[in-house]
Amino acid sequence: EAQVTQNPRYLITVTGKKLTVTCSQNMNHEYMSWYRQDPGLGLRQIYYSMNVEVTDKGDVPEGYKVSRKEKRNFPLILESPSPNQTSLYFCASSSGGEGTDTQYFGPGTRLTVL
Amino acid sequence: AQSVSQHNHHVILSEAASLELGCNYSYGGTVNLFWYVQYPGQHLQLLLKYFSGDPLVKGIKGFEAEFIKSKFSFNLRKPSVQWSDTAEYFCAVNHGPYYSNASKIIFGSGTRLSIQP
After folding, report:
1. Which of B27, B43, B107 to mutate: most A Cβ within 10 Å?
2. Do the beta carbons of residue B35 and residue B90 sit within 8 Å?
3. Burial environment of residue B14 by CB neighbours within 10 A (0 to 12, 13 to 18, 19 or more)
4. Looking at chain A, which residue has its C-alpha nearest residue B50?
5. Is the pLDDT assigned to residue B96 strictly greater than 70?
């Protein structure tokens, strides 16, 4: 089954404790993105990757890191989480650019930073 | 810069009512337009998209949207809603080159649709 998976689905952590949210897709897509969803703000892109070893900032990259060492995986790293990073996070993938192709979204990771 | 407006933040309808959700974008050039839906507790999925051709686009589950270039609009419609249509709906538009892998996407803030049985 074609899908995007994320882990963990729920995470409660404390300020400053490094964490990683994993994202994996099995569709051989070149393009992957991370978004955060906040009430009233819709989805805002954090980082995106057009291919292996090619990543770039989205609209709200501060406080986040990513890596793309393999085509299927695109982990999101919070080196020192803060309460304002409490949000719902989605990973997405597409075969082409996000503005020219359908994106397939993961189930989301709800992060709470205390 | 491109922007997307969804003016209705929360719409409440009864079953069998007709639905129209507004979406307006700001950039006047060639655009690719999307509607994504997020059912409660689920991930976003594509409802429909418009790249070119017939401006009336049909999507899944009886939804359709009309691209009106002169009004910079891409409103979502459904003639008769069901309780299962309760969800959040996001309009999105590309910005940057519409034909390129570098094309980015901007999401609207979303419209929460609640259908009362």
Report:
1. B43
2. yes
3. exposed
4. A100
5. no
A69 backbone φψ class: left, alpha, beta (φ>0; ψ -120 to 50)? alpha
Q: What is the pLDDT of residue B7?
A: 86
CA distance B96 to B60: 27
Rounded to whole angstroms, what are the CA distances from B31 to A94, B23, B40, B85, B103? Answer: 18, 13, 29, 27, 10
Q: Which of B112, B109, B103, B102 is nearest to B27 (CA)?
A: B103
CA A21, A26, A27, A30 torsion-angle sign:
positive
Q: What is the pLDDT of residue B98?
A: 53
Q: Is B43–A90 a contact, with Cβ atoms under 8 angstroms apart?
A: yes
- Mean pLDDT within B28-41: 88
How far does the CA of residue B1 sit from the closest CA of chain A (Å)? 12
> For A58-62, A80-84, B62-66, B99-103, which range has the lowest pLDDT when averaged over its residues?
B99-103
Q: Which residues of A18-37 are buried (b: 16+ CB within 10 A; e: fewer)?
A: ebebebbbeeebbbbbbbbb
Measured CA to CA, the distance from residue A97 to residue A99 in angstroms comes to: 5
Inter-chain CB pairs, A–B, below 8 Å: 67
